[in-house]
């Protein structure tokens, strides 16, 4: 039988349609239907669907008027070099329309609580300042914060890694006080991120998880007393996800983490639990590239937080049950090849987060796979958000996906699957046990490997990486390497602090901090005194190492 | 020759703890039969002594920080074990990749295929 040209075309068409017959799953492994109807929405979720945003179970959004009354905060991770380099970049971002600011600290020194004179740092002196400014004393922090709108903006003090957070926060607050601000009135956030510290980015030396939990509880209690407008710790899924956990697992691990803090606060009995829940209700997620699933994840998170507070802690206050979400687009989805394509990826991932109704957003730089962001990449990340905010109309109506048969179904399915992962963590003995044993790392590693295999086989196409590799771009993107004098200047400044501070005062403050670390007292008052007395980061790290020892890392990297 | 007779040392030159990349590469190399010795965040001295003491056939460096730190490690390994092949992966921008290649180091930046990395290991250790 002869095939006419017309028939041949039809044959090609029908072949190209074939893959839609194949089963499709989202990243969380939930099988997707070609389309959804109202019958697909699970029975138990139906009462949630037709409520206004800002009403229980809150999955539709933080507030009925959404972005009309409060646009999402443009909040970009930033920092490199000397404190003055970082200060200049933050001012550049603010001038370009950023609406909060993040102070990133140098990984080598901050994450490990080392001064630049530590042998492990000296051995890598060129690395110093590559990913954040070096801040070893309150003098350095003062330079980094010079002229920043601490009173009118929302500041992130740094302290991503758990053992570093008390120092970073105390330094920020001490400088704020020196500049005449009342701590009770400033707003901002720390990080103290367990999933970064113990799962995604495992440092060479770190206090054990038990001590980390105590630090975070100390910070939560200290903020309740002195900084009521501060988000004390950020419970964050980003690093769990970028290490390999799927969106449902990211949700499960985030709430397993939250429960660990809230249970600890309850056990200590020093403050009302409802206040702790209010403080912990500002969380952080990764926004990845499967954007409908990611939007559903944000909706699922709000629903789960509300359920958790009511069912586990009997907290009914709607203000506390209403979760606030910060989000950063997935760094690991940014490609090294054809980096300008990442402007599209950043835009799409940002859109997913916004469709999910997040309160705050950072977009990774288009040069993310090459280096920390150049000034231009940073500006583009802000511009992406501004275009979405000002030009697209996306901010006009709250929860624009609400009521979609598919979105409501997937939201409910993610909630169910996430609670199952939460329970699996409890079966491991809880979140801390699942970190200590390496169980969570094993989950992440298996997922990473699967993800790589899918890319390797071409089953998952990555444009410019495993297909469509021709690059006609006239723009050459190379890595931004910051400044090359961060180590030398940090060494000089450290010596200057040690030479000119009031030595007896510093020694006494350090001794008090060590004593409080050994007791069950809250370490933050002594930390504030230590920073005011110009005790340095490495000296505090030495106290930690002596008092708490090091976490027994469950993975070999 | 059989891959299982070949030993590969893997180390991170920086103090940045992101472990996703090197562990995936290590897994692929082990799946291909190689013996992989991971020493994590290691100073130049640690890398050199492990390369000598463990009598490895190939060194893999995860470079997450400044290229000068990696270059110092590479030059000292080349002094201690002349001719020992080295390959590197991680966040290595194009200008830095060129610097490493000039030292005879093969560079596998983000987006590299595992099959290419395993191929390189076989070629560099002489099993292929």
**Which chain pair shows the most residues in contact?**
A-B, 44 and 36 residues
CATH superfamily of chain B: Cobalamin-binding domain
The stretches of 5 or more residues of chain B where confidence is low (pLDDT under 50) are: none
Task: Give the CA-based shape of chain B.
Answer: globular
Please outline the major beta sheet of chain B: 5 strands, parallel
Average predicted local confidence, pLDDT of chain A = 95
Q: Mind telling me the CATH superfamily name of chain A? A: Methylmalonyl-CoA mutase
How many structurally independent domains of chain B?
Answer: 1
Provide the succession of SSEs of chain B.
Answer: EHEHEHEHEH
Helical fraction of chain A equals 40-55%
Could you tell me the CATH topology label of chain B.
Answer: Rossmann fold
Task: Please summarize what this structure is.
Chain A has 557 residues and is mainly α. Chain A is 51% helix and 6% strand. The longest helix of chain A has 23 residues, at 291-313.
Structure write-up:
The complex is a heterodimer of chains A (557) and B (128). Chain A contains 24 helices and eleven strands. Chain A is mostly helical and 557 residues long. In chain A, the strands form three sheets. Chain A has a five-stranded parallel sheet with strand order 3-11-10-9-8. A four-stranded parallel sheet of chain A has the order 4-5-6-7. In chain A, strands 1-2 form a two-stranded antiparallel sheet. In chain A, helix 8 crosses helix 23 (524-532). Chain B is of the alpha/beta class. Helix content of chain B is 45%, strand content 21%. Chain B has helices at 20-31, 44-53, 67-80, 94-102, 114-125, and strands at 7-12, 35-41, 58-63, 86-90, 106-108. In chain B, strands 2-1-3-4-5 form a five-stranded parallel sheet, sandwiched between helices. In chain B, helix 2 packs parallel to helix 3 (67-80). Chain B is globular, with a radius of gyration of 13 Å. The termini of chain B are close together.
């Amino acid at each position: 039988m002869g095939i006419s040209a017309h028939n041949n075309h039809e044959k090609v068409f029908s072949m190209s349609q074939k893959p839609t017959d194949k089963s499709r799953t989202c990243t969380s492994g939930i099988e997707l239907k070609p389309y959804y109807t109202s019958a697909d929405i699970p029975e138990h979720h139906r009462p949630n669907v037709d409520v206004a945003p800002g009403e229980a179970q809150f999955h539709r959004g933080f507030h009925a008027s959404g972005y009309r009354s409060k646009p999402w905060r443009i909040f970009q991770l930033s920092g490199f070099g000397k404190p003055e380099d970082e200060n200049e970049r933050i001012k550049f971002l603010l001038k370009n329309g950023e609406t909060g600011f993040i102070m990133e600290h140098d990984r080598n020194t901050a994450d490990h609580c080392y001064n630049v004179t530590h042998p492990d740092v000296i051995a890598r002196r060129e690395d110093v300042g590559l990913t954040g400014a070096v801040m070893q004393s309150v003098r350095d922090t003062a330079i980094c914060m010079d002229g920043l709108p601490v009173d009118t903006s929302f500041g992130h003090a740094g302290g991503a890694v758990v053992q570093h957070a008390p120092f970073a926060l105390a330094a920020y607050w001490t400088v704020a006080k020196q500049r005449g601000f009342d701590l009770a009135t400033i707003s901002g956030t720390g990080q103290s991120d367990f999933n970064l510290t113990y799962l995604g980015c495992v440092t060479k030396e770190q206090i054990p998880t038990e001590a980390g939990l105590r630090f975070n509880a100390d910070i939560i209690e200290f903020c309740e007393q002195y900084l009521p407008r501060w988000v004390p710790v950020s419970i964050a899924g980003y690093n769990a996800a970028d290490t390999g956990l799927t969106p449902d697992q990211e949700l499960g691990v985030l709430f397993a983490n939250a429960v660990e803090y809230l249970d600890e606060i309850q056990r200590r009995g020093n403050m009302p639990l409802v206040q702790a829940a209010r403080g912990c209700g500002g969380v952080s997620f990764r926004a990845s590239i499967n954007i409908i699933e990611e939007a559903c994840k944000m909706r699922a998170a709000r629903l789960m937080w509300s359920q958790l507070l009511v069912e586990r802690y009997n907290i009914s206050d709607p203000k506390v049950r209403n979760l606030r979400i910060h989000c950063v687009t997935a760094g690991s989805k940014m490609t090294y090849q054809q980096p300008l394509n990442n402007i599209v990826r950043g835009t799409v991932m940002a859109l997913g987060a916004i469709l999910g109704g997040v309160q705050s957003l950072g977009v990774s730089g288009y040069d993310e796979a090459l280096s920390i962001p150049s000034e231009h990449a940073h500006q583009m990340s802000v511009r992406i958000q501004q275009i979405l905010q000002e030009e697209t109309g996306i901010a006009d109506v709250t929860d624009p996906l609400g009521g979609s048969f598919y979105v409501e179904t997937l939201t409910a399915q993610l909630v169910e699957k996430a609670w199952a992962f939460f329970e699996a963590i409890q079966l491991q003995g809880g979140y801390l046990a699942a970190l200590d044993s390496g169980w969570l790392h094993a989950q992440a590693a298996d997922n990473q490997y699967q993800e790589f295999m899918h890319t390797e086989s071409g089953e998952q196409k990555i444009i410019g990486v495993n297909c469509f590799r021709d690059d006609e771009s006239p723009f050459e993107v190379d890595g931004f390497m910051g400044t090359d004098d961060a180590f030398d200047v940090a060494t000089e400044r450290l010596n200057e602090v040690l030479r000119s501070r009031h030595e007896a005062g510093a020694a006494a403050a350090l001794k008090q901090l060590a004593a409080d670390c050994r007791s069950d007292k809250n370490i933050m008052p002594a930390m504030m005194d230590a920073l005011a007395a110009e005790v340095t980061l490495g000296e505090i790290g030495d106290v930690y190492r002596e008092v708490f020892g090091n976490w027994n890392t469950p993975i070999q990297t | 020759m059989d891959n299982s007779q070949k030993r590969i040392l893997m180390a991170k030159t920086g103090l940045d703890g992101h472990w996703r990349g090197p562990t995936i590469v290590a897994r692929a190399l082990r799946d291909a039969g190689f013996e992989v010795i991971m020493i994590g965040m290691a100073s130049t001295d640690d890398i050199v002594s492990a390369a000598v003491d463990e009598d490895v056939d190939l060194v893999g460096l995860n470079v997450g920080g400044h290229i000068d730190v990696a270059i110092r490690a590479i030059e000292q390994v080349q002094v201690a074990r002349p001719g020992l092949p080295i390959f590197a992966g991680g966040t290595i921008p194009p200008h830095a990749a060129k610097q490493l290649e000039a030292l005879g180091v093969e560079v596998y930046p983000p987006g590299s295929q595992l099959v290419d990395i395993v191929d390189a290991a076989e070629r560099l250790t002489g099993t292929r």
